[in-house]
Amino acid sequence: MSDRLKGKVAIITGGVAGIGLGIAECYVREGAKVVVTANHNVDGGHAAVEKFGDDVSLFVQQDVAKEADWQKVIDATIAKFGKLDILVNNAGIGGVNSAIEDLSLEDWQKVIDINLTANFLGEKAGIKAMQKTNDAKGSIINVSSVAGLVGLPLAPAYSASKGGSRLLSHATALNLAQRGIDIRVNSVHPGWIDTAIIPEAARDAIVKTVPVGHLGKPQDIGEICVYLGSDESSFANGAEFTVDGGQRA
């Protein structure tokens, strides 16, 4: 496959490692130009640009929970590539695992800020950029989680943030469609993906919970994001795409 995203420009938050890097790899393969962001993994950002080439990629350091940083990313994207077609809100954290009565407000708020408020800020900035530079057309993809469909008992903040991202996607998609704006919004719900977030000691136990018998790969999420970013998915809007090896079947 090639050229499914030819001529498109995408921002991928948290795009320098794990699922985000898998999405970026698939996007570059399909002809997109990508702007990848991260807050702490600056070395990963520079490595990604070196891998893809600075003619088709750009790294911008970003705290996704800060509105000013979103404007910085949008400005850098337009300055280098001239427009914005696709926004992938991928950056996120797991937070502290605990019973809810033992969870501090600070720990709760950090997860909500990065996993949910950042999606709101990204949608807001992305829609305005698409209206200004791309004839009010585009695709927004919010990377939620299976925890946005079924709560995780020891991850109340994570579950709430990912469930919120799911319904934010629905609401934004409806709002834009009802106003006749051709910007689609969908959510992707990964299951257990083979990234550094999975503790090695728990790997075997986790694999046993996956019906297909193995963990997913970052590229598995990348491929569904290629579809959602491409014109092939023009009738997919306000929808949920679960990629979890059958766990929610």
Please describe what this structure looks like:
- The protein has one domain: 3-Layer(aba) Sandwich (Rossmann fold), CATH 3.40.50.
- Helix 2 (42-52) links the parallel strand 2 (33-38) and strand 3.
- It has a 7-stranded parallel sheet, with helices on both faces.
- With 249 residues, it is α/β, with parallel strands linked by helices.
- Helix 1 (18-29) packs across helix 7 (218-229), helix 3 (67-81) runs parallel beside helix 4 (105-133) and helix 4 (105-133) runs parallel beside helix 5.
- It has helices spanning 18-29, 42-52, 67-81, 105-133, 156-178, 203-207, 218-229; strands at residues 9-13, 33-38, 57-61, 86-89, 137-143, 182-190, 240-243.
Distance between the termini: 28 Å
Helix content: 40-55%
Structural class: alpha/beta
Number of helices: 7
Strand content: 15-25%
Indicate the overall shape.
Answer: globular
Q: What is the CATH C-level name?
A: Alpha Beta
Radius of gyration: 17 Å
Instruction: State the fourth-level CATH superfamily.
Output: NAD(P)-binding Rossmann-like Domain
- Element-level helix/strand string: EHEHEHEHEHEHHE
Major sheet details: 7 strands, parallel
Which strands sit side by side, in order, in the main sheet?
3-2-1-4-5-6-7
What multimeric state do the chains show? single chain
CATH fold-type name:
Rossmann fold
What's the average pLDDT?
Answer: 97
Low-confidence stretches: none
CATH architecture label name: 3-Layer(aba) Sandwich
Strands, total number = 7
